[in-house]
Amino acid sequence: MRCIGFDVAKGLAICLVVVFHSLQGVAKIPSASETISLTSYYFSLWLMPVFFIISAVLSVNSIKGVNSSVYKKGSELLYIYVLWSLIIYLVRLLFDSITNTNMEIDEILYILWDPLPTIWFVYALLLSYLFTWVLRNVNGTLVIFGAFLLSVFNYYTEFFSGTIMDRFCWIYIFYVIGYFYSDTIIDFFNRKGYLVLTFLTFLTLSISLFYLGEGFFPFFLFPFISLVLAFSFIRICFFLTAFIHHKVLDLLTFLGVISLYIYLTHFPLPAASRVVLGKIGFTNELLMVLAPMMVAVLIGFVCYKLVRFRIVKAMFSFKEAVAIFKSSR
């Protein structure tokens, strides 16, 4: 059964993820304002934690279920990661003049330990799912504390720098919190009270991060800051489901439903749209950030509509790919 509140949160968050990636690109322009860098830094703190918390809450039954469900989920994530890494790699290699990237042929092997920037989420999600399945019967508080220590250790030692484990060490704590405290989290999101406090907390912390700038807070506080922002954002999204116009709600819910399509396809065309705008003289920062988001949503929508065709569906579903393979034999 789908949860509209989670769909709304995913719908808004996936749009902000595309905005975040656009901000990263615009920030590389010498004339880019400091606001661009600060906004990019701000989004980097809590957008992915939102997805990992939601993914963990929605994966509880799968992780606690029979081994076949774990195999199904794991193989699905692995398939999507490998296939879309190949797709993104080939597109970047063939159209590097448009996407503004430099790729070598042998770099495809790097996906085994160092994923492409736009697909690392899937690899980290796969590792989070499998690690949590292994640790599912361990005391939750102990696992969360261990994940926190791992994050701090890797930050100060850079032990896993240049590998997927670098990202995993940062993000895993949010997944295990979502898994071990899923019932409490759902209850918190559905509560009617404390909305004003939640909104003020989100607003105050957001303004503080912009005002104080990057590097003000010590790293060991970041997991807590990210957690508060992510929880507050999701809580506000749950509130919106009861008050916004039904057409807006339907749109946000739909964006949440197609969030995977948007995420997987938001490179390279959306990124290329920003590059093209710059080359033809449109250097307005807001336009260069919002245009890729609109292109990404459009492409995600088209892919969602095209999954009625088996070959397209197989690009997003391991089960469908296996079915096509078996039927062709």
UniProtKB/TrEMBL annotation:
<dbReference type="GO" id="GO:0005886">
    <property type="term" value="C:plasma membrane"/>
</dbReference>
<keyword id="KW-0012">Acyltransferase</keyword>
<dbReference type="GO" id="GO:0016413">
    <property type="term" value="F:O-acetyltransferase activity"/>
</dbReference>
<feature type="transmembrane region" description="Helical">
    <location>
        <begin position="194"/>
        <end position="213"/>
    </location>
</feature>
<comment type="similarity">
    <text>Belongs to the acyltransferase 3 family.</text>
</comment>
<feature type="transmembrane region" description="Helical">
    <location>
        <begin position="286"/>
        <end position="307"/>
    </location>
</feature>
<feature type="transmembrane region" description="Helical">
    <location>
        <begin position="41"/>
        <end position="58"/>
    </location>
</feature>
<feature type="transmembrane region" description="Helical">
    <location>
        <begin position="219"/>
        <end position="241"/>
    </location>
</feature>
<keyword id="KW-0808">Transferase</keyword>
<keyword id="KW-0812">Transmembrane</keyword>
<keyword id="KW-1003">Cell membrane</keyword>
<feature type="transmembrane region" description="Helical">
    <location>
        <begin position="248"/>
        <end position="266"/>
    </location>
</feature>
<dbReference type="GO" id="GO:0009246">
    <property type="term" value="P:enterobacterial common antigen biosynthetic process"/>
</dbReference>
<dbReference type="InterPro" id="IPR002656">
    <property type="entry name" value="Acyl_transf_3_dom"/>
</dbReference>
<feature type="domain" description="Acyltransferase 3">
    <location>
        <begin position="5"/>
        <end position="304"/>
    </location>
</feature>
<keyword id="KW-0472">Membrane</keyword>
<feature type="transmembrane region" description="Helical">
    <location>
        <begin position="164"/>
        <end position="182"/>
    </location>
</feature>
<dbReference type="Pfam" id="PF01757">
    <property type="entry name" value="Acyl_transf_3"/>
</dbReference>
<feature type="transmembrane region" description="Helical">
    <location>
        <begin position="78"/>
        <end position="95"/>
    </location>
</feature>
<feature type="transmembrane region" description="Helical">
    <location>
        <begin position="115"/>
        <end position="135"/>
    </location>
</feature>
<keyword id="KW-1133">Transmembrane helix</keyword>
<protein>
    <submittedName>
        <fullName>Acyltransferase 3</fullName>
    </submittedName>
</protein>
<feature type="transmembrane region" description="Helical">
    <location>
        <begin position="142"/>
        <end position="158"/>
    </location>
</feature>
